[in-house]
Amino acid sequence: MFKRTFMITLVAALWLAGCATAPVLDSPRQISVPQAASVSDVEEAILDAMRNRGWAVAERSDGHIVADLNVRSHFARVDIRYDADSVSLEYADSRNLEYEVVDGEERIHGNFNSWMTNLISDIQRSLSYVE
Questions:
Q1: Where are the extended beta strands (E) located within 9-120?
Q2: Alpha-carbon gap, residue 101 to 3, rounded angstroms
Q3: 41 to each of 44, 62, 81, 95, 126, how far by Cα in Å?
Q4: If phi over 0 gives left and psi between -120 and 50 gives alpha, with beta otherwise, what is residue 103?
Q5: Sequence-ordered alpha helix ranges (H) in 54-82
Q6: CA-based Rg of the chain, rounded to a whole angstrom?
Q7: Is the CA virtual torsion 49, 114, 120, 126 positive or negative?
C-alpha cells in the first residue's frame, strides 16, 4: 500500500512540475550611459552588440532601433530607445517563446531573458571603452 501511495504522489509531483509556468518577462531594461559617451557612441555600441549576438536591425531612426533575433524556430523583437544618458530595451513581440499574461504578469520562455541579458552585457561592455 505504501509503495502505491508513494508512486501516485511521485507521478502527481512530476506532473505538476511539468506544468510550471514560464519565467516572468524581465522588460523593460535600462542601461546608464557613461558621461563621456555621445549618442553616436551609444548607437555604435548597440549595433556592435547586436551584430555580435546575431540580432538584426528591423527598423532604425534617430534614437530608436527595432532589433530582431531568429534562433531556430524562435523569434524575438526588442524595441531599443537611446540617447546620450540611457538605453532602454523593451520586449516588443515574439513567436514560439511561450509569451503569455498570467494574473496580470507577463511571462516568457527563459531564453528570452537570457538573450536580453547577453545583449545588455555586450552594450555595457562596449560603452565601458568610451573615453
A1: 29-32, 56-61, 64-71, 74-82, 86-95, 100-102, 105-107
A2: 39
A3: 5, 13, 14, 32, 9
A4: left
A5: none
A6: 20
A7: negative
C-alpha cell at 69: 533575433
How many CA atoms lie within 13 Å of 116's alpha carbon, on the beta-carbon side?
A: 25
The answer to whether the beta carbons of residues 40 and 83 sit under 8 Å apart is: no
| Residue at 7: amino acid letter | M
Distance in angstroms (rounded) separating the CA atoms of residues 63 and 83: 6
Each of the 131 residues of the chain gets a pLDDT tens digit; together they read 666 665 566 555 544 444 556 789 988 999 999 999 999 999 999 999 999 999 999 999 999 999 999 999 999 999 999 999 999 999 999 999 999 999 999 999 999 999 999 999 999 999 999 88
Q: Which architecture, in CATH terms, is 24-128? A: 2-Layer Sandwich (3.30)
114: enclosing H helix or E strand? helix 110-128
